[in-house]
User: What shape does this take?
Amino acid sequence: MNIVIIGSGNVAYHLAGMFTECRIPVRQVFGRNKSALAEISTNYNIPVSTTELEDADLYLIAVSDHAVGEVSKIIRKSNCIVAHTSGSLPLEVLHGNYRKAAFYPLQTFSKAKRPDFSSIPFFIETENAADERLLAELAGKISQNVMSSTFEKRKYVHLTAVFACNFVNHLFSRGKEIADSQDIPFDYFKPLIEETVEKISFMEPRAAQTGPAVRNDTRVLKLHEELLEGTPLELYRIMNKSIKEMYEL
Assistant: This one.
């Protein structure tokens, strides 16, 4: 099966790398960013182009959500599968007379860190059973966790990911601002962060909750609020309110 990846960002970069490591040939990576394409070509020895799209059996569109629809229009071939890698877009966003699909890896990607693809869940949505088997087989060559999906399910997968990843990382950033303001190395908090994440490997997150809000320690809560202002104070109050409501305090 001939595969072309469209895009040059983090998802495209890592998919190209993992396909290469698993000896799944990628015919081309197509995109606009010449320097990013050059990096992919250099690191993974894959042909790249900014002008001429190669013929393929499968096109994987790994671009930002707002660009998927327009990018999908450049594919003129009909006898092929075109799959986007988004968790929050329906198949109907793809504009063309081809078989439409979603090939969604549930992970946060940064070029600075290579992910372990074998543990990354892939959610597959297609228009027919034959294409689902084909894409599931492809995903199964790089991951141990492959699930069939619907758009309705993918929407909730993506929403959960925002809470579990994006919001949590933002709280790390706000926490680091507080630590920096007092010249406290944020590295000191990394063992705490690692232990917090490790605990939910064998405990339900709800059971693992600790801190002044779950104890309803009003003295500490008041003390913390006196130290904060602006957005961090608003976040602190919102988070504590949510914790109290969960535990009916």
The chain has a mean pLDDT of 95. The domain at 155-246 is CATH 1.10.1040.20 (N-(1-d-carboxylethyl)-l-norvaline Dehydrogenase; domain 2).
